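I hope you will forgive my troubling you with a question about protein structure. I should value your view on which stretches of the chain appear to form regular backbone elements. Here, with my thanks, is the record as I have it:
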Amino acid sequence: MQNEFTAVIEQDGEWFVGFCPEIPEANGQGHSIEECRENLSQAIALVLQDRREDALRGLPPEAIRDVVRVA
């Protein structure tokens, strides 16, 4: 599954720093825009994985898990 998120990237001296408005906990940086974008992408993936694991921890065995697709 592929999702798209907004990347806001600004230059700060020699660094490019970025954040994702949809996932405020995710931030990235790099010496180039591409490096910053890749770093931000990895941060978003880690935050989403952590949120998913937290949400599923402790679910009762009778809970129904299914997939919902968003276009």
